[in-house]
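We modelled the chain as a single entity of 222 amino acids. Its sequence is:
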Amino acid sequence: MATTKAEPKILESYTFFVLPSWGELLGYPTLGNYSNHNVSKISQDLVIFFGGAECSVQTEKGTLYYLFGLGYYYTKFELQSGRYITDNRQLTGLVLSDFVYDSLSTLKNVTLENDRDVIVSENLFKLPVDLSFKSENKRTFIQGTLMRNLFIPYKDIILEFMETLRNPLSFQVNKTGPILLSTHWDSYNQILIPSEMDYEMKTRYLSPTAGLNRITFDSKKH
């Protein structure tokens, strides 16, 4: 990663963040492979995060945007044999290059045009975890909008993610270190893990899955 020009300022940001389709965000489909089988079709590739902090970093190549928290990359896909598979990867961070971030920041907020805190669009859902500072009418409207556009269409995935959060064996960050889903120019469409991860976890996390170029070592460089 290129040397930064300034120390990043990390801001607390308790947000619920969902990308309904990782592939659509990147603009082209990467089918990938799973257990030595080629993937023939991806029907779902959702990224979901409870964010706790975010920052931007200036580099020689451009700006990188980071979201830190507890996240989930979920995918449902078909192998060439016709067999359907669901798979997921736990995440602790998201790294977006300026090109990808800019495409998100220019999305039209289809239902809440006058509320900058809440984004509801075809390719992004982002809102504060705490809505108590909103008026009762605004909260009711936001909750109804999210129910129709997010929680009903993706109910099973969100419930699975919540169950994962409740599992004490999940998100053992002290053992796994940072696990980053990245669009960094040198690690585009990859999940990055630290090389210090223990062998058993490393073997499990390095297993390829649909929709990604690869899963590799690199997270400690960020």
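As a brief sanity check on the tokenised model: The longest strand covers residues 37-58. DSSP finds six helices and ten strands in the chain.
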